[in-house]
Amino acid sequence: MVRLILTTVFSLGFLLICAEVPLKAYADPGSGLLLWQIVAAVFVGAVYQARKAFSRIKRK
Amino acid sequence: MTRVVSFRDPGGVLSLTDDRVIRTVRPEGVENFEAYLHSATVRRYAERRSIVTTRIVDGDPAAQQAPIVLEHERVPFPSYAHEWPAEMLLAAGDLTLSLAEDLLSEGLGLKDATPHNVLFEGPRAVFVDVLSFERRDERDPIWLADAQFTRNFLIPLLLDRRMGLPLQRTFLSRRDGMTPLDALGMIRWPQRWLPPYLEWITLPARASRLARPALYRPRRMRDAAQARYVLQHRFRRLRKQLRRLSPETGSSPWLNYESERPSYSAEQHAAKHRFVAEALDAMSPRWLLDVGANAGEYSLMAAQAGASVVAIDSDPAPVGALWKKAHSRGADILPLVVDFARPTPAVGWRCAEQTSFPDRANGFFDSVAMLAVVHHLLVTDQIPLEEIFDAAAQLTRRWLLLEYVGPSDAMFQRLLRGRGELYRWFNRMAFEEHAARRFETVFSREIPGADRCLYLLRRRG
Question: Across the strands, what pairs with B127?
Fold first, then answer.
């Protein structure tokens, strides 16, 4: 369980790291809607990691 | 004459030269265009004609040489989001999402998500912007066009369906859809705090105050599989949300006009039906404009007779119902929400990005049908009769299928609202005299027991 939580936190940390490459968009990416999408992506990314960790535990 | 109609994408410009649609790919767009060229998803969509057919006229994408000049197959009658019923906007959104989702497995995506990327060939949505495709970083979990999709599809459809704000009003006054901040002013408590208003409008509008430059730095996930999982989840959710906005049958009084036929007895309706069938036989229309099409009974007859039909009506509910019918039957009908008395104006930069309805329609059609329409134009919109025939003569190159509805008809009386004095001059003789200035009669027939008469006219000159 601890491992699962750590994996999740670890993945969130990675998500929040910003790569130093320029943003290539010409369509307006919005502000609040983009922020909302990032929050949702963090959450779904964490679910992915949790499921992956859970299936690893189950295999053991 | 060359007219540049799309210029915002740094990857290239789109211009119309006479009857040709030419796209010039700039150096910034070559890499993405190459990705488009080699995509299996694109090939699959092109085979079922959901992506516009394109050929390279000049340049070599393999050598990464720019400019590359492309020619697209012309969509015969372009239409815009401000002329679509909700059903068509939904179909355009669905196509955009399907493409974005299917491209994911190839490491590709769409860099924008706007109805401007979609046109309709008959009732079928066609994706026309080949520079929308881009190669994605596989660890990128964010779809930058997500906000544009919400502004252009989800919020307008939500406001149309739940608040009665017509799409025409949203898109005629806004190039890039409805922002959450604009929409927030239209909704009240407690609606603001209920889904989906909360997710698409209230929270994003409030969160926009928190935006800092760091928000726009690209995000990367640990591995590509995680990013793909996030994006697939996002597309599935957007699709579910979009489909929930599928319009219910509208409540327009004109929606059941054809099935109830308050102006015709069964015998009169059969007589009208027979006349239209005979007229279609005589006209053999290639392109027919059905003005005031309602739910499209006669548009469907014309399509069955081999015509490509553009059916216009000012009421979105029957237009949407006709699109559904045409789409499910594969009938070649493009139904549009256009008020003939107040047609779509030219909009956009220098009024040249999206042309007016008359600019597209005048002289385009070999046949025009105006069945039970003239009395509405004459009385409700107060258009002089000679103007109506002038406009019809500008639209059609040859045929005009017309129905006269006289002052003693119940519908005419209903429209008059006590202004009978103004139309004392109006009768069949006056109608025929005005028609004769521009058209000659091929054949005509009275509808038995009604102050109505049908005409097949041929344009003079």
Answer: B51, B118
